[in-house]
Amino acid sequence: MTLIPLTELQRDIQKTARDFAQRDVAPLAAELDRESRFEHALVTRLAELGFLGMLIPEEWDGLGLDATSYLLALEEIAVADASAAVLMSVHNSLPTQMLLHYGTDAQRERFLKPMARGEMLGAFALSEPDAGSDAASLRTQAVRDGDDWLLTGTKAWVSHGTHADVILCMARTDTSDARVGAKGISTFILTPDLPGFSVGKKEDKMGLRSSPTVQINLDGCRVPGDRLLGAEGHGFTYALASLDHGRLGIAAQAIGIARAALEASARYATERKQFNQPIASFQAIQFKLADMATRLTAARTLLHAAAAAKERGERITRFSSMAKLFATETAMWVTTEAVQIHGGYGYVTDYPVERHFRDAKVTEIYEGTSEIQRIVIARDLLAAVSRGDVDGLLTD
Ligand code: CAA
Known about the structure:
With 396 residues, this protein is α+β, with helices and mostly antiparallel strands. It folds into three domains: 8-116, Acyl-CoA dehydrogenase/oxidase, N-terminal domain (Butyryl-Coa Dehydrogenase, subunit A, domain 1), CATH 1.10.540.10; 122-233, Butyryl-CoA Dehydrogenase, subunit A, domain 2; 237-393, Up-down Bundle (Butyryl-CoA Dehydrogenase, subunit A, domain 3). Helix content is 51%, strand content 14%. It has helices spanning 8-35, 40-48, 67-80, 82-93, 95-102, 105-116, 235-271, 283-311, 317-342, 353-363, 370-386; strands spanning 122-125, 141-145, 148-159, 166-172, 185-190, 197-202, 213-223, 228-229, 273-274, 277-278. The two termini are 30 Å apart. The mean pLDDT is 96. The structure holds acetoacetyl-coenzyme A.
C-alpha cells in the first residue's frame, strides 16, 4: 500500500528496481562496505536497466521517465546499498541534467548520449577543501589560453571521482573583483584524459564506503574551448539549479536507508526474545516502530509531492530543500532507533543496521547540509513575506 498514487508504469519500474536491488545489489553490500570496494559491474548492470539515463529524453538515448519513477527506483537501490544509490543519484541528477539543460547539441551528442546509455559515468565537482557550504567562494581558476582554458585548483568531495568519465566542474573565470563572487563562476566539461587532470586524495569515510570520494587536482589542466558549458559566468546558477533536483535524489536515498533500517528492526523485533517473549510484544518497541514508520511515510509523501511539482514545471527550490532536510533527518533518527532496538547487536557488523546508521549520516551533510537547507527554505519564505504574498508562505 502507498499513499502516493502510482501509474502502472511507475509500479512496474518500482518492481523492476526492487527485484534487481534485492537479487543483485543487497547480497554484496556488506562485503563491499567492509572492503571499501567499488564494484564496476554494478554500473554496467544499472546501465543495462536504463537506470543511468532515467530522466534523459529518448532522443538523447535516455528512458525519458518522470521524476516519480526515477525516485521510486532510486529508493529501491538505496534500500539495498546506499553507496550504489549515491552513484545513481549524482549521475542522473547533476552532470546529465546540466548537459541536458545547458549543453549544446554537439556536447549532448558527445557526452550526454553515452552517459544516458551508461557507457560514461558522470560526476560533479563544485566543492573545494575551503569552499563547502559557501560554494561561491571556490578558488579554482580558469584562464584563457588561445582557444583553450587552463584550470588550476583542487576540487573536493567528488563522488565516484575515481571512476568518472565526465566531470562537470565549476571554476572561476572572472577574478577581476572579489565582489564578482557567484557571477564569476563557469562550468566546464572535464574528462580524465585532459593534460593536468589527476585524481588526488581518496577520503577514508565513516559510511558509503564502497562509493569512492576523492579530490581532483587540476594543474594547469588544458580544457578545449568547446568544453565550456552554457554561458560564461553562469556556472554557479547552473550548479544550484541542478542541486534543486539532486536534493530530491538524496531525499530518496535517505528514505531507502531508513526503510532498510525499519524493515530490519521489525523483523528483528519479532525474532528476538527477552523476558520469554518477542520484544515486538513490548509497547516500548511497538512505539518506536510506529514512530519510525510514520516519519518515513511523511518524508516519502513530501518527497513525492515535490517530485509532482517538478513534473508540473513549477519551481521546486524550497520543496526540494524541505524534502531533503526532512528525509535525511528522518533517516538519521530512524537508523538511530534501529540500532537501539537491536541493542548490542545493533552496534556490531553482524547486523545491517550499524551500516545503515553510518550511511545515513552523510545524507545530512552532502548536497547541502541540513543548515544550508534551512537557509534556502527560510530565504524563500521571507521573500514571500516581503512580496506580501501570504499564499506564497505555503506554496512557492
Ligand atoms: N537555482 C538557480 N539559481 C539559484 C538558485 C537555485 N536554486 N539559488 C540561487 N541561485 C542564484 C541566485 O539567484 C543568484 O544569482 P543572481 O545573483 O543572478 O540573482 C546566485 O545563484 C547566487 O545566489 P545566492 O546569492 O543565494 O548565493 P549564496 O552565495 O548566498 O549561496 C547557498 C547560496 C544556498 C548557501 C549555496 O551556496 C548552497 O547551496 N551551498 C551548499 C552547496 C552544496 O550544496 N554543495 C554540495 C556539493 S555536491 C556534493 O555534495 C558532492 C556529491 O557528489 C554528492
